[in-house]
Amino acid sequence: MNNQRDARQTRNAAPDLQPAIVNVDPINAVLDAWRRERPELDLTAVGLVARLSRAVLLLGPLQEKVFVDHGLHRGEFDVLATLRRSGAPYVLTPSELAATLMLSRGGMTARLDRLEAAGLVDRALDPDNRASFRITLTSAGFEVIDAAMTAHTANLTELVSDLSPTEQVSLDALLSSLLGHLSRR
C-alpha cells in the first residue's frame, strides 16, 4: 500500500487523481522512463492520452466478442443500431447512414450488401428519389439488433463495473467534455 501511495506522489499530476492500481498500468513504466530522461516535461497529457488509447485497444476485442456472438461485425452492428434507434418505421437512406456513422459511401455499400444478404435489412428504390435507396430494418434485423444491444449493454456494464457509479458518471462527464473540445478544433 505504501508503494502505491509513494508512486502516486512522485507523479506530475495531483496524487489523489492518480490511478488506484498503479502496478498494473504499463503506461507508468513509460512515463517513469520519460521522467527520468526528461524531468522538465509535464507528462500529464501524455499519460492521459496513452491511457485512453490503451483502453480503446483493450475494449475493442471485448466488445467485438458480443457482436460475433450475434453473427455481426462491429460495423454491421452500428448500421443495425442506427436503423433501430431511428424509430419506426426504421428506414434511412444510405447517405443518412453514412453521415451518421462517418463512413464513405463505398464502406456503407459493403456493409449493406452483407446485411441484405443475411436478411437483416431490405434495400429498395426510394419512391421520392429514384436515384437513391431506402434501407429498412427487417423483422429478423430487429430481433438481432435488440438481442445484440441487450448483450452489448450488459457487457459494457460489466466491463466498467470496477469503477463505482460515481466514478463512472465523473469519467463520462470528463470524456464528454474532452470530446466536445476536440470536435471544435
Automatic annotation (TrEMBL):
Gene3D superfamilies to which the protein is assigned, alphabetical: Winged helix-like DNA-binding domain superfamily/Winged helix DNA-binding domain
Listed name of the protein: DNA-binding MarR family transcriptional regulator
Example of a GO biological process term: response to stress
GO molecular function: DNA binding; DNA-binding transcription factor activity
Keyword Phosphoprotein found: no
Organism per entry: Nocardioides marinus
Pfam families: MarR_2 (PF12802)
Keyword tRNA-binding applies: no
Swiss-Prot/TrEMBL keywords: DNA-binding
